[in-house]
Amino acid sequence: MSESTRAAAIAAAEAYFDEGHFEADLARRVAIPSTSQEAEKRPALHDYLAGEIGPFLEGLGFEWREFANPVMEGVPFLVAERTEDPSLPTILIYGHGDTVRGQDERWREGLSPWQLTREGERLYGRGTADNKAQHTINLAALACVIAKREGRLGFNVKVLLETGEEVGSPGLREFCRAEKDRLKADLLLASDGPRLAPDQPTLYLGSRGVINFSLTLNLRDGAHHSGNWGGALANPGVRLSHALASIVGPKGEIRVEKLRNPPLSNSLRVDLGKLSVEGGEGAPAIDTDWGEPGTTPVERLFGLNALEILAFRTGDPDNPVNAIPGQAEAVCQLRFTVDTRPKDVIPAIADHLKAAGFAEVEVSPTRDTPMPATRLPSDHPAVAWSSNSVAQTLGRAPMILPNLGGTIPNDAFSEILGMPTVWVPHSYSGCKQHAPDEHILAPVAREGLMIMAGLFWDLGESAPVQAGG
User: Residue 125 in contact with residue 30, Cβ under 8 Å?
Assistant: First the structure.
């Protein structure tokens, strides 16, 4: 009979890592080229769910099923359920089995996106940080608790894995609406994104929203010789550059009044004042004087909107000619907090440009579905409960973010399914997510297994939510 204690469950999680089982499971999963960004490789999305994750969960006593995506063919969902007692609380675990494209030729010598490679404390492979290692940690921690609690968890679990997160989670919200009863739970406990610092456990309670949009100025068909027409034809590159300068200042400050945040509340300033950002080795240095004047980098990253110019083109920069171009285009992005509604963004920019004298610049969204911002109140019982559990496991308290600086489809859970959401990231900012040489840090993964085993054990002892609550 196994020892039924919290310490035993955490020790089992450590052993799972130390004995090589984590790397073995992750290596199989990385080897499946489940990129959603290349249509010809989408059969691997089914292989990942039906050939790898489903059987693993079945071995833990789950019943699972693959569902077709309601809006995009070949990008399925997996839903698994393990019910011990309907009167017990139920948690939902989310993850995504898809990755960005491999970019095989751009990885440095000795590395491949579809082969797990360990170098020192780094485990390289596509999907390690985003998101295969993260849900591997969570599912393995469940197994450790089941083993050390003699086949029980003390709560019910549902698992939702999507395979389209890297193409904007098409169909996720429609699926959650259609399967609301099937997915109903009392708490989302999931993992994605980075810690604030590699050695600092982190919790976050939502995410900033995102909308991409383009500014286009089409003054005439074709280009015209600058010697014949220079000084007599308006240059769209010049006009558009000034239009951009009217919406975002030289230090990155937002100049569209309707997109500026209200002053941060005292409580949010206090919460953010406890945080610091450290990306680890290879991370860029923070520009402390960038963004909204009078705010800190942490406040700008987690508490305020940020407007970025992602690309700007006029003419042919690779092969310039002596001609005035006829068109110019910029692609921009707004990361926004819960103070901003997605539907207000494009009209606010269009109105601002018109008032600033740039009515000829066309504004249009470049994402079909902007992702809303979400934020669980920091005084929700699940927040203190989660923080105390992590502190008990590691001997140090986690940093708590009101929301991730990036964007995840958290609104599907917090708004559509109506549950509190707590995220426990197992990566770090320097992981090269979405880039060649993506990796995770072995010490962070090992600690993540310990954290999740402790959280799952504690859920079976005293959950912060009630069944049906």
Answer: yes
